[in-house]
Amino acid sequence: MGRSQSFLAGGLVAALLFALLPTVASAQEGNWPWGEVESVIAGPSSVTARGWAVDSDTSKPIKVRLTVNGKVVRTKKANGHRADKADRHGKGVRHGFVLRATVKPGTHKICVEGDNIGSGEDTELGCRTVSVEKRTKKRVARPFGGVDRIVSDGNTAELAGWAIDPDTRKPISVDVYVDGEFAKSVKAKEIRKDINRLHDMGKNHGFTASVQLKPGKHEVCAHAINNGEGLNRNLGCGVAVVGGNPSRGGPGVVITPTGIVTPVIETHSDGWTVWTPCTRTARITKGNFIAGAEVVIDPGHGGSESGAVGPNRLYEKTLNLAIATRVQSILEARGISSVLTRTTDTRIPLRTRAEIANALNPEIFISIHHNGGAVRRQSTPGSEMFYQSGSTESRRAGGIMFEEITAALDQYDADWVGTVRNGVSARLREDGQNLYGIHRYTPEIPSLITEAAYLSNPSEAALFARDDVRDAEAVAIVDGLQRWLDTDDPGSGFLAEFVDGGSTGTGGTDNCVDPPLQ
Asked: Cα separation of 339 and 9, whole Å?
């Protein structure tokens, strides 16, 4: 896709990157598929391939296949947003791909093939050889940190950030990669009193690294090198442009020291101009820059917008964040990168939530909610999934998530309630557009709203006060996301789309007060 997805944000497990020089399909003239495998990331018992593919006979996305040692394990359309390739090839912007599969530990040859349209033949777009480690439940101390800025000037790019390994108070090494290739190694030994105040691990954990670049656009990443048992960690990536003006801001967000997720408008040598929660602009100098993620998780409501409230005074905004935090932790353990739209009890308007997703350009954008209002008794959970009308992948995600969530909750004894919307549907305005801003403001990203159960029902509210039930829902959401990423399962529970112009009135910017950013 048009930015790196190879890092794990907010404490996510780091994947191991074993990438050779980018392999571009040699056939770039004629009626056959062509493109590039830009990277292959090996995680615990998994691999993820990224790149782009087009076919001379069509401007529409084509199918690509991931093979492991010659066996096809994953097929998916190359329909990710890649505006950089549209400018070069005149085939539109939907030609990026991310292919992820579960594989056994060991050394494997990973290839991606393009499915031919019309005349011509299928084409191998590129291959990598990777070493895959076994997934383990054992928790080990891994390095962590962040990239504060990536700026380019002249023919160089400069990275600045910090890195700590829990196994030692001494400075650790940070490796810099350019376009997937190792460029240099530096020690994170610069004085960072702010980091010491936060983590009490000593003050010498900052780093600055400069790398020489050829003219053009480059992906620059920093990796913290593990000091003991465990994996290295990708601290973050960004785009550096050489030739002409210094690099401008683009895709990505900055998580401020106060935990606020802000889409980047422009990058400066000493910080960023960002979009605040209340859709204003602000200049900040500190924070953790994140270029992209495979999944963006939106904990619904927050701050003055509480959402549904249970008879036990359990607020939906609190429950949504608790589930979302669990989802991110489980995704981390499975090697899938993700970012939350909010990490605190803060009001975030819908437009800002959507712009966070647009800035990160994920594979999927999921908004977690819990319902209110139903009183009709039924024997099964009244879960509702709302997909993005016009997106087949969003609809498929809804069908898979409906199966996973209802199966997970149905194991518990409760006096379930529901409505005629118990299932998977799209809610539209009278003009035919998606009603929900989560869908309407992210037209290029498959998005999904989950309403797992009815918090207004005393029996269900009592269930969701329990940690084991919250854990079960979080695992179900992650299982659903992984099924959607790794399979072509269609899901079930589909209902007809319906028009309902009514709205709760929440999610806007009226009387919005921005929280402190620094």
From this structure: 6
